[in-house]
Amino acid sequence: MLRVENASITFNRNTVNERKALDNISIHLEKGDFVTVIGSNGAGKSTLLNAVCGTYDLDKGQILIDGIDVTRQREYKRAKHIGRLFQDPLRGTAPSMTIEENIGLAYSRGKKHFFSLGVSTADERLFREKLSELGLGLEDRLKTPVGLLSGGQRQALTLLMATIVTPSLLLLDEHTAALDPNTAEKVMEITDKIIKEHKITTLMITHNIKNALEYGNKTAVLSQGKLLLELHENERKDMSIEKLMKLYASSTTDTLTDKMIL
Ligand SMILES: Nc1ncnc2c1ncn2[C@@H]1O[C@H](COP(=O)(O)OP(=O)(O)O)[C@@H](O)[C@H]1O
Ligand SMILES: [Mg+2]
Q1: Residue 89 near residue 178 (C-beta atoms within 8 A)
Q2: What is the CATH topology of the domain spanning 2-92+167-261?
Q3: How many CB atoms are closer than 10 A to CB 113?
Q4: Which ligand lies nearest the alpha carbon of 44?
Q5: Which of 17, 103, 127, 130 is deepest in the core (most CB within 10 A)?
Q6: CA nearest 212: which of 83, 19, 74, 37?
Q7: Alpha carbon nearest to ligand 1 atom 9, residue
Q8: Predicted pLDDT at 131
Q9: Ligand 2 center from residue 40 Cα (angstroms)
Q10: Residue 247 has what pLDDT?
Q11: Are 134 and 160 in contact (CB under 8 A)?
Q12: pTM for the full model?
């Protein structure tokens, strides 16, 4: 489904700020895989997602989605099949538009005629149903401007918008990191439910090792632009946070922050 092959990206080449963000990294996701990604600050996690989306070009290597080589494909073309969430809840939605208008825009992306005026009754019913599945009471607030919602509500809405037309690939970049612990847990549960329901192939960066081992079916550990460890189903089952920390410490000079363990 997703194949990243020997991908390398160096920023600011030939300057004092030269930085190898991705160093010959390969990672493969089967259809329906839900891979959690952890690693210290600057390990290259966001760069990996940016490379998959086409935000950054690779210096070397290849990216294949559904067997198609997209290495040279522009970002806007890939975006049609990729759902994406960032840490910042303000990034995925338009604050002055209503909940309904925001979902309507996301929904029309999957249709032939991109631009449609207003939201039909059938669409409205679908939106209400999808919103009620979030369990946040947003189904009764279709006309509310998104700017009035809390960070957690906005992140849940962004998730709904990213998946209302099932994407080939869902990329989550620490999408719960800016939320308070309770809200983060709630958004994580919603995320898991949506991914499972639609069997969406997902790459999820998380700052939380517990979440990394708890959700998904595989875990990838990045360090200094490389894939340090890859834990598959069975290895993951036997893995505790303590064991993973030890394994990590014995394979790299990088350190994980306390924030990741809590
Ligand atoms: N656009 C950019 N320009 C220059 N350097 C960058 C850019 N994006 C990331 N980097 C550098 O690449 C390295 C990896 O960054 P990133 O992928 O954001 O790490 P992570 O998400 O794992 O914390 C870091 O050293 C970072 O400073
Ligand atoms: Mg990052």
Answers
A1: yes
A2: Rossmann fold (3.40.50)
A3: 6
A4: 1
A5: 103
A6: 37
A7: 47
A8: 97
A9: 9
A10: 86
A11: yes
A12: 0.93
Q: Is the pLDDT of residue 255 over 90?
A: no
Q: Beta strand 68-69 with 19-29: parallel, antiparallel or unpaired?
A: unpaired
Q: Give the residue whose CA is nearest to atom 20 of ligand 1.
A: 42
Atom 7, ligand 1: residue with shortest CA distance: 11
Question: In which band, very low, low, confident or very high, does the pLDDT at 129 lie, cut at 50, 70 and 90?
Answer: very high
Ranges of each domain in the chain? 2-92+167-261
Q: For residue 252, what pLDDT is reported?
A: 79
CA of 7 relative to ligand 1 center, distance in Å:
15
Ligand 1 pocket, Cβ-based, cut-off 6 angstroms: 11-12, 19, 21, 39, 41-47
Q: Does residue 252 or residue 224 have the better pLDDT?
A: 224
Question: What residues contact 223, with CB distance under 8 A and at least 6 apart?
Answer: 39, 40, 43, 248, 251, 252, 254
Distance, CA of 179 to CA of 222 (rounded, Å): 23
- How much distance in Å is there from the Cα of 115 to the middle of ligand 2? 34
Are 218 and 232 in contact, with CB atoms under 8 Å apart? Answer: yes
Q: Which is higher by pLDDT, 120 or 138? A: 138
Between the alpha carbon of residue 214 and those of residues 8, 159, 241, the distances in Å are 30, 19, 10
